[in-house]
Amino acid sequence: MSATLNATFEPVVGRYLRMKLQGRSHRIYVEEAGQGIPLLCLHTAGADTRQYRALLNDARILQHFRVVAFDLPWHGKSSPPEGWQDRDYALTSRAYLDTILAVADALALEKPVAMGCSIGGRIALHLALHHAERFRAIIGLEAGAHVDPYYDLGWLHRPDVHGGEVCAGVVSGLIAPGSPDADRWETLWHYMQGGPGVFKGDLHFYTADGDMRGQLGAIDTRKCPLYLLTGEFDYSCTPEDTLEVARRIPGAEAIIMKDIGHFPMSEHPQRFLDYLRPVLEKIRLEKIRGA
What we know:
Blueprint: E1 13-21, E2 24-34, E3 37-42, H1 59-62, E4 65-70, H2 93-106, E5 113-117, H3 119-130, E6 137-141, H4 163-172, H5 181-192, H6 198-209, E7 226-231, H7 239-248, E8 253-257, H8 264-267, H9 269-290
Parallel strand pairs: 3-4, 3-5, 5-6, 6-7, 7-8
Antiparallel strand pairs: 1-2, 2-4
Helix pairs in contact: 4-5
């Protein structure tokens, strides 16, 4: 008697990319699926590409977009560089930009769409300012110009507390109350697995080094369209923060997403995809018209 296996592979392919960043050798984990316009996805602070699991499996999007996501160094399956034990990790704007552009070049992504959430949404604004010509469009999820620390960041890396659990505890309130339980807890599980001090190091960029106040007016959306999508329950990048960014950038489009918090693609993926698909379709049609 033969057993019937109820198992299927997802369309997602994962590989390791060996490359140099800031003069150091790195092993970067990359996942991708689909075909067509490259869509480069950037995860939140302290997390990894698993946040984009639903997007990487959405047949409607994969028909026209090559969805690519990678783990930043120190995150997920991307190891820190040799000698990491002798230094404190702190993400800077320069290193973040260099990493994104280097990965895009290594993967030969031609005029990709860049989409990032939280710290990824902040760096999306930096990309729009400094490298608009390299992208077909930029999508900032939970993208504000600045946020002051609203809790003691020291708790994120202490010897007397469980780092993963305290990181998950800190972000748990940023998930909308109506988000599906399974997605909520998977999102928090990702945070429980972060490396020591990595979430805290990412917040160096988010709360200090990556401040975009005073620079927003220099972003030219005629060079590259900018879309801003923010969840109504986000209190780290509030809807008001996003609307203010859009007000200060002529041509930027802002959408406030109902029933969603700070992690749209991860905490309530199906609701998020309902908001994202029309934006991607607009980008796709613009490409056809411009071809």
